[in-house]
Amino acid sequence: MRAGLFIALIAAAYFGGQVQDSFAQKRLPASPSESTKVSPRKEGTPRKETARSADPYTVGFVTGTPQCTEFALAQDIATTLAGGQESGPQGQVALRVLPMVGNGGVRNVLDVLTLAGADVAIAPVALVERLRQTRTFGDISDRLTYIAPLHIEEFHLLARPEIGSLTELSGKRVDLGDDGSAGAILGREVLNRLGIKISETNLGPEAALDGLRKGDLSAALIVSGKPVNFLTQVSQLDNIHLLPIPYFKELLQQDYLPSTLRHKDYPNMIAAEASVDTIAIKSALFAYNWPSGSERFRLLEFFVQTLFTRFPEFLTGAHHPKWREVNLAAELPGWRRFRPAERWLQQQSGGEAALRKAFGRFLEGKPSDNPPDREELFRDFLRWRERNPDK
């Protein structure tokens, strides 16, 4: 019995060491609080892991926290593309998309730049521009490419009932989201531009909402595309409301857009005839610039072809309404598009020009007054395209 116990202890020590070694080898390069803050100081050029993937059919898709809209979009892609595919010879799915939790900001970019299994990421364009300008991770112009611009992400500033305006947040405790997130970096930038000096905290969405309810925080910022499903947890009994963020063109026009939150977006917080003005930023689907002809390059090419071909499926049904803002043919000035994505767009009947021309012909038959809802109109257009494929 003693001999068996001695052998068990030796085995436990050995395998415990193996687990620790494995964890040390797979540990991410740095946590957001360690080296992912955007600053003028150059952090050095992180290296991309190039180990052969255990699953050559899986695209790693870095997105935001599970509470955000961007994570919901990644799940939309993963579940939609998983359906309707033929299986391989061993029964494997021809293409899989694996959502990977990021922070919706710097972490997303760093993961794509370093992790072997991270191929694409949703990230705010303004934040990626900051990283490029400050060279936080070296020159990323040749290491990142974009597949397509996506939707806009609105600033949701939740506030306690005693806070009636943005200026009243001066000196108050305000949560801007996890360190390195879009809210923390761009929210801090916006408040500084507007001259609002706050006491900043950096919590996750759940902890921030709890802090608001308890009165530990005066406000909390969430940057994500509306409607954010997580915000349905806010009850009228919480006395938490959405605080307007005024759009000062002379201070914000370079990277920010005016936007509006309405009752249909958040019926639990906004009255039927009311609205809340806010600001927004553009987001895009970025990808690692894998060497042409490499295994990951071919996988990413297959992903783009599949996503673009099946894109109309995301515009109907139960998919998130933010999909209806996406124009695959739109360009991202200052960045190079992934070459297979560019080729696909050029091959589709002349690309954007032909689509705009067809949409114009569709609109000719519509009355000019009282136009229908954008979603309804676009669905009509898709049905018209199906009935008139040669027009």
Automatic annotation (TrEMBL):
Classification via InterPro entries: TRAP_TAXI (IPR011852)
Comp. bias intervals (Basic and acidic residues): 40-52
Residue ranges of the region described as Disordered: 26-56
Pfam families: NMT1_3
PANTHER family in UniProt: SLL1037 PROTEIN (PTHR42941:SF1)
Protein name per UniProt: C4-dicarboxylate ABC transporter substrate-binding protein
Organism: Bradyrhizobium vignae
Organism classification: Bacteria, Pseudomonadati, Pseudomonadota, Alphaproteobacteria, Hyphomicrobiales
